[in-house]
Every structure is written in C-alpha cells, then in structure tokens.
Write a structure and sequence with these properties.
Helix content is about 85%, strand content about 0%. By secondary structure, the protein is mainly alpha-helical.
Length: about 260
C-alpha cells in the first residue's frame, strides 16, 4: 500500500531529526569515553581556558556591571511602594546569584565562545585540516573537542562567579548613591538570605551551561559541510542551539532546586 504525500513529508522531516539526535548522542558518548583516556592535552586545555576566560572578561565585566545597575533601578520603585526599600540588597543578591549571573554569563559566552568554536572547527573541517591531523597520528577529537569542552566546563563557573561579584558591585554603587548605604551594611544585608544551596545550584548551572556550550559548538563545527557557507551555518546553529538548551536546563535545574528547598 502506497503512502500518502502527507506521510512522506512527515517521514522526510522526522528521519533526519532522529539521525541528527543519534549522531549527537554518539558524539557526546565519545567525549565521555575519551576524556578519561590518555594522552591528556593539558597545554591545549590551559590555552583554551585563556582564550575562553581571559578574553571574555571585558564583555562579562560590562554586562555584569550594567545588569546590577539596571536591575537595582528597576526594583527600587516597586519595593518603595510597599515601604520595603531596605530589602533591596537582599533582593538583588538573590536575583543575581540564583539566576542572573549564571544565565547572563552563559548567554554571553554562548554568543561569543560558542560561535568561535563552531567557526574554528568548521573551517578546519572544510579545509581538511582535521583529516590531515588523523594522517599525522594525532587524535583530532581528543585535541580539538575534548580540550575545548573541558575548558568551557571549567571556565564558565569562574566567569559566573566574577560576573556575580561585578553585578553586586554595580548594585552597591547604585544603592550607595541613592540611599548612602555603607559597603558593609549592603553586603551583610545582601547575603543574609543566601544559602549554600543557592551557591551550589549556581555553580552546578555554570558547569552544565559550560559543557553545553562547548559540546554543541564542537559538534556543529566538527560536522560542518559545504565549504565556507557551512562554516557560517555551523557557527550560527551552535549559538542558537546552545541558547535553547541553556533555557531548557535553567527550567529543569530551577524546578529541582525549588523541590530541594521546599522539601
């Protein structure tokens, strides 16, 4: 019995999707296998940490500082209406440490680092540099993929912690200029409602987001095709998919954290 045109269109759309999921699952599984096998590319990991972390500091600094100032300005009128302006430091610290610092840092890193990884590996793929590495007895997956994913996973928690500090400093300057709150009073009030669960959850978010950014960027770049056009597509797709997965992971982690906090 022949299939209808609608069934043909659905199958034509579903088959590549499942093929892509299978390929991505194999890619992730290969990473977890090779990350624990020697040789370990420590020099390349350190170099990638420098490229990802140090060169992202100016953008992270500006974004974190502006986020702290803007969120403080937006929150002050609402709290003042209820006579709760003194709760402003606590509200800012909860928002920045629990949500804004991990999420904003991950999105900025996905846009900057994820696209760079996708474009770099994509250009190496289409120019057959990866094939040349295999011929010269170098494991390209270990050298190119594992090192970058490990670097993003290790670096993002550091960037997140720095972003949270810069955001709180921006919030402090705003509060100090408006309410003349001292540095000690601001941070005592800010951290009065912060628990170890909040800190651990934020660090766990950063680790998960860093792994996501690295693995997606490497996967798209490592499997790029169709010349220079494919390189651009790999970089763009790496950013879009990374951001989408980050929001999904944010929802799941927040649900689990809320369940732990209320149980």
């Amino acid at each position: 019995m022949s299939s209808s045109p609608r069934e043909y269109v659905i199958a034509k759309w579903i088959d590549p999707a499942f093929t892509e999921l299978y390929s991505a699952a194999r890619f992730v599984l290969r990473f977890f296998i090779e990350v624990f096998q020697p040789p370990f590319e420590f020099k390349e990991i350190i170099r990638q940490c420098y490229e990802i972390g140090y060169k992202s500091l100016p953008l992270i600094t500006l974004t974190g500082f502006v986020t702290g100032i803007v969120f403080t300005n937006q929150s002050r009128p609402s709290l003042a209406e209820f006579g709760a302006a003194s709760w402003l430091p606590s509200l800012i610290a909860i928002a920045i440490i629990r949500a804004l610092a991990p999420l904003v840092t991950a999105l900025i890193t996905a846009g900057k680092v994820g696209s760079n990884i996708g474009a770099e590996l994509g250009s190496m793929k289409v120019t057959e540099q990866i094939d040349a590495m295999e011929v010269s007895a170098i494991n390209p997956f270990k050298f190119l993929v594992v090192s970058r994913v490990v670097a993003t996973t290790l670096t993002l928690p550091v960037l997140m912690t720095y972003s949270a500090f810069v955001g709180l400093m921006g919030a402090y300057l705003n509060v100090h200029l408006n309410e003349l709150t001292s540095f000690t009073s601001f941070f005592q009030s800010a951290f009065s409602q912060i628990t170890f669960l909040d800190i651990y959850a934020s660090l766990f978010k950063a680790v998960v987001y860093g792994f996501t950014i690295g693995i997606v960027g490497c996967y798209k770049g490592f499997n790029a095709t169709q010349g220079t056009q494919g390189v651009g597509r790999a970089a763009n797709t790496a950013v879009v998919i990374s951001m989408f997965l980050i929001f999904i992971e944010e929802i799941l982690i927040v649900q689990v954290t809320t369940w732990i906090r209320t149980s």
